[in-house]
Specification:
270 residues; alpha/beta; eight-stranded mixed sheet; four-stranded mixed sheet; 22% helix
Length: 270
């Protein structure tokens, strides 16, 4: 289907469940459903009057016999399949956010997988972009002018400003203005991080960025980040804030769906 698909949106929730080893739970779609045998992050349709979190709890109890106790909103994506147009709300479920022993209650397969090293296939089309996003750590240190560092199940992860990047650096950081000026001549990159300052800039870069970095230097911007997160974002959003604002807003940003919060300077300098 194309961008003019006008079918009614079906609301769907999905959970990205972690274990103590930092792996993610995937399961295959059972026989009798569209895309049977394809792998996905488990979940399903929200029922009338049901909150997204309640739908997540019900679906995991029905499909895998586990109880979701705590989850954080993450990404919201719209996808058109041959059989339906869906709005997918993805939640992160930490290792201490669920209980129980996994049971394949619908005859499906399930497996724990590492970020950046998924071995199951085929993957449900709507989940393809998530695999790259899951490689982005949820804890980062650094600053915009020097780049960011973190780690996940696949190892060390770093992103470098374009002006400082070497041939081996494949996660590149640019301002929105730099991207507009140089998008046609950028070197090949595994991941493109775009730095923004406003909600308007963030809206413009969501289709181009693999990750957005929002620079926050005052309380107005801090609240603007919260507003955008609460409406749902389609790419991971990293907040780069002054230490004082990070201390004040970190918990609220993360609970609203921010990928990570990094304390640092406000400028992206060459």
């Amino acid at each position: 289907m194309n961008a003019k698909d006008t079918r009614q949106l079906i609301e769907v929730v999905a959970g990205i469940v972690s274990n103590d080893a930092g792996e993610y739970l995937l399961s295959s779609r059972p026989e009798g459903k569209p895309y049977a045998g394809y792998w996905e992050f488990a979940g399903g349709k929200s029922e009338a009057g049901e909150t997204p979190f309640a739908a997540l709890q019900r679906e995991f109890a029905e499909e895998l016999d586990i109880r979701i106790c705590h989850a954080l909103p993450w990404l919201v994506k719209t996808h058109s399949y041959e059989h339906a147009r869906v709005r997918l709300r993805f939640f992160r479920v930490p290792a201490d956010g669920w209980t129980g022993s996994i049971q394949a209650r619908e005859g499906q397969q399930w497996a724990w997988q590492k970020a950046g090293a998924f071995t199951v296939s085929p993957m449900l089309p709507a989940n393809g972009a998530l695999l790259k996003a899951l490689s982005v750590p949820t804890e980062l240190e650094g600053r915009l002018k020097d780049g960011f560092r973190g780690a996940n199940g696949a190892g060390i992860y770093r992103v470098i400003p374009l002006a400082r990047a070497g041939a081996d650096d494949k996660n590149l950081l640019l301002t929105a203005d730099e991207y507009r000026a140089r998008s046609s001549i950028l070197p090949a990159a595994d991941s493109l991080w775009l730095a923004v300052d406003t909600a308007q800039e963030f809206a413009r870069v969501q289709d181009a960025a693999d990750v957005a970095v929002w620079r926050v230097t005052d309380t107005a911007a801090a609240h603007s980040v919260l507003d955008v997160l609460q409406n749902g974002v389609s790419v991971p959003l990293v907040v780069s804030a002054t230490p004082a604002l990070a201390a004040q807003f970190r918990t609220a940003w993360l609970e609203a769906g921010a990928q990570a919060v990094a304390e640092g300077e406000s400028g992206l300098e060459n």
